[in-house]
Structure prediction request, 148 residues.
Amino acid sequence: MNSAWIKLRAHHGMCLAFFRGKGYSSGFVAHMAQVQQALEKNPLVRVVCETDLICKACPNNHDRVCCDQEKVSFYDAQVLKACGLTAGEILPYRTFQALVYDNILIPGKREHICGSCQWTELCHLTQQKPQHEERSFHDDKREDTRAV
Ligand code: SF4
Prediction:
C-alpha cells in the first residue's frame, strides 16, 4: 500500500460499506480489514474493473483474474455507471464512497447491481439495521463497530 494511490475495483466500494468480518477465507478477511483500515485515512484510489488490492488475498483470484469474472465485471461496470465514473479515474476514497452511497446505497439500488452475489443476504441484513447501530460514513468520529 505504498503507491500514490490504491487500486480499488469499482464494486468493492459497496463491499467495503458492508464488510463485517466475513469473507472467502480467514486470510482474505484479515487482509480486507487491513485495506479497510488503510482506506479510512482517505488515500487516493484508482477505481478499476480488474483485480485490485482486495483481490490480492482472495482464493478466487487466479493469476489476477477473478474466477467469477463475468459477474464481478458487471458489478464494476454498474457501479461506475451509477457513480458517473470511468475506469481508471483517481479520486480520494471518501469522495468515491460518497458517490457510492449517494448514487447506489441510499437510493436502494444495491441489490439491482449485486443481488446475485453470495453475500447479498448479509449486506441486506446489515442495511436493515437501525442507523444508530451502524457506523455512518458521514460521521468520521464514531467508533468502529463493524467487527462481528
Ligand atoms: S471474488 Fe473476485 S472480485 Fe471478489 S475479491 Fe475475490 S477475486 Fe476479487
In short: The chain has a mean pLDDT of 88.
